[in-house]
User: Which sequence fits this backbone?
């Protein structure tokens, strides 16, 4: 016995020693159950047995008891070692644990939102670069068309008021009408081409917006990889290359938006890991292997310190300088892949560099 039992029962230690264990309990049902379980044990372990203990104030106190059989050197059952604690204390501990679990879930959601915002920042950088060219092209063409429209309007107004042929010829040369007529079709075609390119980019953004949707669907992982690599490539510089070795299609089930976020994180991670290389690159290789779709990201960086490998997917773990990374990208990617019934692992490649391997179930 210990001081906790002495305190709960209000009895002195010498008063408790040598007395039947059933005397500790307040009601007949608890005493009978204690006799069956502890006085005449069967050798089985007891878990969470709730009985009414006689408390120091003479009332009853609910306690939760656990019992472990005690055997002698010969293997003979000698008795039971019984431990317990008040149910009220257990309930308070359970409430605290549940509160901690709820707080952890809220924190996880906040971290997920934080990483999504980081992914959005990378996307915005790529979109700005991607949209700049066609929009600038369209804008330049529209300005030219605006100038040409002003000259054509002036020339047509002169024609309509019946100006002499010599005046029209002189004005036509001055306004370069023949050049305008020759430029109109290419300008219009270029403007249409730029507008269509802008439309295609917006369509791509609509597909990317699925990153905030959790609905499960059948989708082509190859298309997701190509789209993610394209957007990351627009947001980074320094000669980094992503070499793709992909089959035509690889169908899986899950959230294409979430999987695109994983691919973006892994390519971005490879970009950071290879920043000191002369020709930084990542080889993205996809294949079918048994009952899994396998996607590998092999970079030509320095690899991962063996001491860091066990922690590489831990939240907030990063080897980047302070302010250069949240340490959440790989942790969140790991969680997304796990929720898709897959695995995400990291290792050092035999030929140098690091390799991240993503496995998803085949549809």
Assistant:
């Amino acid at each position: 016995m210990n001081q906790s039992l002495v305190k709960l029962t209000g009895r002195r230690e010498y008063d408790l020693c040598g007395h039947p264990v059933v005397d500790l309990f307040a009601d007949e049902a608890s005493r009978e159950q204690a006799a069956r379980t502890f006085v005449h044990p069967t050798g089985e372990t007891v878990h969470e047995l709730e009985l009414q203990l006689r408390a120091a104030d003479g009332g009853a106190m609910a306690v939760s008891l656990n019992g472990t059989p005690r055997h002698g050197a010969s293997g003979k059952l000698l008795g039971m070692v019984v431990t317990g604690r008040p149910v009220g204390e257990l309930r308070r501990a359970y409430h605290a644990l549940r509160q901690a679990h709820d707080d952890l879930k809220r924190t996880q959601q906040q971290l997920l939102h934080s990483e999504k915002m980081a992914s959005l920042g990378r996307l915005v950088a790529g979109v700005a670069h991607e949209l700049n060219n066609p929009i600038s092209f369209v804008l330049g063409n529209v300005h030219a068309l605006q100038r040409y429209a002003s000259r054509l309007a002036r020339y047509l107004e002169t024609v309509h008021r019946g100006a002499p042929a010599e005046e029209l010829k002189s004005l036509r040369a001055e306004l370069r009408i023949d050049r305008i007529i020759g430029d109109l079709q290419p300008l219009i075609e270029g403007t249409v081409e730029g507008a269509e390119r802008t439309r295609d980019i917006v369509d791509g953004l609509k597909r990317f917006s699925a990153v905030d949707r959790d609905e499960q669907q059948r989708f082509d992982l190859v298309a997701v990889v190509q789209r993610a690599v394209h957007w990351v490539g627009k947001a980074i510089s320094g000669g980094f290359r992503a070499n793709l070795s992909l089959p035509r299609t690889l169908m899986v089930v899950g959230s294409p938006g979430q999987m695109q976020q994983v691919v973006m994180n892994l390519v971005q991670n490879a970009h950071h890991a290879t920043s000191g290389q002369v020709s930084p690159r990542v080889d993205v290789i996809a294949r079918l292997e048994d009952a899994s779709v396998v996607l590998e990201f092999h970079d030509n960086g320095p690899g991962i310190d063996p001491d860091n490998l066990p922690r590489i997917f831990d939240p907030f773990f990063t080897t980047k300088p302070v302010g250069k990374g949240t340490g959440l990208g790989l942790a969140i990617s790991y969680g997304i892949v796990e929720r898709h019934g897959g695995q995400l692992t990291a290792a050092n490649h035999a030929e140098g560099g690091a390799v991240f391997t993503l496995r998803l179930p085949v549809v």
User: Anything to note?
Assistant: The longest strand covers residues 60-71. The chain has nine helices and ten strands. The radius of gyration is 37 Å.
